[in-house]
């Protein structure tokens, strides 16, 4: 609805430069909490974590056999076996005295008094006696008390995003809770006088961007507050941004271009600083990135596809940065491009594709690439192919990496 | 601790066959709920969803220009323009009467009375008059009321796992809630007389598998109940499984092999049926899969790495199946194998690797591949390389796909 959109941007900042400016102006929030391991999955560690205790924490038999005192076996051979007394089982906590042998299994705690394990194959039990056919040295076939993890060993650095197996490792060293960064908070403010929540009349449009962005924020580890629609009014928009300056990040949708009703860049400029307005990406160049009283403000365009493309490029890394962790690359899958994709050199282009299997081969089938208003083209796509600034399109048949932007991380 | 483990399995079922048997014996639970779109992310649709309303729901201007009655422009040309009356703006709900022209922007609702749009370039406004230099036909430059989505159009089939952009699409057609399958419930039962929750004495081990598996269940869309440790006692184990037959799935950890204290296969056999015991995979062949009173029971081995490998192979697809959706393939990244990986033909091997960047190239560095007890080898790995049954190892330098088993989906 804004006829100056296409021609209105004098310059368009490159995607990487725009992201760098945004992250450079935003500080990690640094607030921490201690959470139970059972609640810590996918959270970000706020401190380096070292092991308070070793694992397993005690010497173990490394073989099935007999725990002994090594000195009792010195000189033993097949011809002249050492003869020990069968003194019980490690599982029964039987200790090993002089000339005793106690039955152990791989992983058993080494019984008190023992300092080595004779492999079962090197022995023969005869009644209450055990013949040992080979000498063992001290610590032979014994696993150290810190074999898996040493006390004081660094397990994870600050900024590490915890995974289920990490929780097991942390528990194994005796930890019950871990220090993590709080999840970043995000105010999500949909804007546009045409937006309604339901039952649109001619000229009205149902609000969808705020809902989608709020769900993406959750997937990316943030806590979204999905605000009511704000109309295209300078004062109303200013108040809406000011209300959410208590959040770690403010995101708006709509009104980010250069038309008469695109007020967000002006509002941000009045309240703080516009870092970037207009980015060399497609679809979705009319994005504005700014900062108000140290709170980063991401003003996403209102066209649904443009909104999502920019959210992935700027909001996702911003949330990670503010939340104290690195932004992991999105997963990709290789596929053969079924039709050529066009792009302008100098512009990073995100071409939505459907991925299909054809005769055992993965094919990437471009969906509608022109227009950014068609929500179904992104909802029904499996991912997108990123055409870098250095290229002018990608020819049919090329092997491409399809990026799936909706994974949780 | 079980010396018959290595030799005890007469046959080992192939991974794919074992999975097929398990899924074949488990039915989708079929329970449904209606949830608000704001809570529906990552949930699975229980029914096909069609659009109750079209999008946008009204005719729109497809160009910046003037809404007119096409008949008023018939015969117009640059030499002999049609002259219309400037009658207002679409944004003000001004209607189009005979010989009227109302200003429209791309996306504006077509004003009442208009049936076409003249592009701005084909006009010139002179005071209150508009000269039109080219005729338009009915519906020219007009977008249909169902241009984005038609009423009745199928948006998603039952079984579709919802993503943030899907939520936007569903909202845009006027839906507020959607029918989804309930999240599958899982009883997670760690077993083993050596297990304690903290402060292990010699011979004792801190319980970690139940915690890790519970977190994985959450990542995979299930709701885990993490039970207290159950000791290696037939009656206690039987009671523990019976208690959780109200769940959609029962998972145990430990006691799944063929040693004296490996009682789970026997318990399952007494209560129901063991479908598979022993699978041709490494690490982790001593897994048991069964069904008790129509509830699938997955008995995972107690060695931490073996536990995780089997959870990913069997529990993840089972949860998806029971929850009514397909199991998406795990994301992979290509890397060059830095050292050879060994495997036995006939056995599917999961070789944990760390992924590193070296001079712009991604390198997969195998971590300890022998032994399945070292939790740190999996917690500190970035993924694993799957060596199929048909191969005997993978040589150094080969390009491999590193599977990341901890993504949420």
Automatic annotation (TrEMBL), chains A, B:
Residue intervals of the MoaB/Mog domain: 187-321
Pathway stated in the Swiss-Prot or TrEMBL entry: Cofactor biosynthesis; molybdopterin biosynthesis
GO molecular function list: molybdopterin molybdotransferase activity
Lineage: Archaea, Methanobacteriati, Methanobacteriota, Stenosarchaea group, Halobacteria
InterPro entries registered for this protein in UniProt: MoaB/Mog-like_dom_sf, MoaB/Mog_dom, MoeA-like, MoeA_C_domain_IV, MoeA_C_domain_IV_sf, MoeA_linker/N, MoeA_linker/N_sf
Superkingdom of this protein's organism: Archaea
Keyword presence, Transferase: yes
Keywords, in A-Z order: Molybdenum cofactor biosynthesis, Transferase
SUPFAM superfamilies in alphabetical order: MoeA C-terminal domain-like, MoeA N-terminal region -like, Molybdenum cofactor biosynthesis proteins
CC terms in the record's Gene Ontology section: cytoplasm
Name assigned to this protein: Molybdopterin molybdenumtransferase MoeA
Gene Ontology BP term (one): Mo-molybdopterin cofactor biosynthetic process
């Amino acid at each position: 609805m804004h006829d100056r959109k296409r021609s209105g941007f004098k310059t368009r900042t490159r995607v990487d430069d725009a992201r760098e400016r945004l992250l450079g102006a935003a500080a990690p929030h640094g607030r921490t909490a201690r959470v139970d391991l059972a609640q810590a999955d996918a959270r970000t560690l706020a401190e380096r974590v070292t092991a308070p205790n070793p694992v397993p924490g005690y010497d173990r038999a490394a073989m099935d056999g007999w725990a002994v005192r090594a000195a009792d076996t010195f000189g033993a051979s097949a011809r002249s076996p050492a003869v020990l007394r069968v003194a019980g089982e490690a599982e029964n906590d039987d200790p090993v005295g002089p000339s005793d042998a106690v039955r152990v299994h791989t992983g058993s705690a080494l019984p008190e008094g023992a300092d080595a394990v004779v492999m079962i194959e090197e022995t023969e039990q005869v009644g209450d006696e055990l013949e040992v056919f080979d000498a063992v040295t001290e610590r032979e076939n014994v696993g150290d008390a810190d074999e898996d993890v040493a006390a004081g060993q660094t397990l994870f650095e600050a900024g590490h995003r915890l995974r289920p197996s990490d929780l097991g490792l942390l528990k194994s060293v005796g930890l019950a809770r871990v220090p993590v960064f709080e999840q970043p908070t995000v105010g999500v403010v949909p804007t546009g006088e045409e937006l309604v929540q339901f039952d649109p009349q001619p000229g009205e449009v149902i609000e969808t961007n705020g809902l989608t962005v709020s769900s993406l924020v959750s997937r990316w580890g943030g806590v979204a507050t999905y605000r009511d629609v704000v109309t295209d009014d300078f004062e109303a928009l200013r108040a809406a941004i000011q209300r959410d300056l208590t959040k770690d990040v403010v995101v708006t949708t709509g009104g980010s271009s250069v038309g008469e009703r695109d007020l967000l860049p002006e509002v941000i400029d009045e309240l703080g600083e516009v870092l970037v307005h207009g980015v060399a990406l497609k679809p979705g160049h009319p994005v504005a990135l700014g900062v108000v009283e140290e709170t980063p403000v991401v003003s996403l365009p209102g066209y649904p596809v443009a909104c999502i493309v920019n959210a992935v490029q700027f909001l996702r890394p911003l949330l990670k940065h503010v939340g104290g962790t690195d932004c992991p690359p999105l997963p990709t899958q290789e596929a053969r491009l079924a039709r050529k994709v066009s792009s302008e050199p100098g512009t990073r282009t995100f071409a939505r594709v459907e991925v299909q299997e054809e005769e055992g081969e993965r094919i990437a089938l471009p969906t509608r690439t022109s227009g950014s208003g068609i929500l179904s083209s992104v909802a029904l796509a499996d991912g997108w192919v990123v055409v870098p600034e250095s290229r002018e399109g990608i020819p049919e048949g090329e092997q491409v990496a399809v990026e799936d932007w909706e994974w949780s991380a």
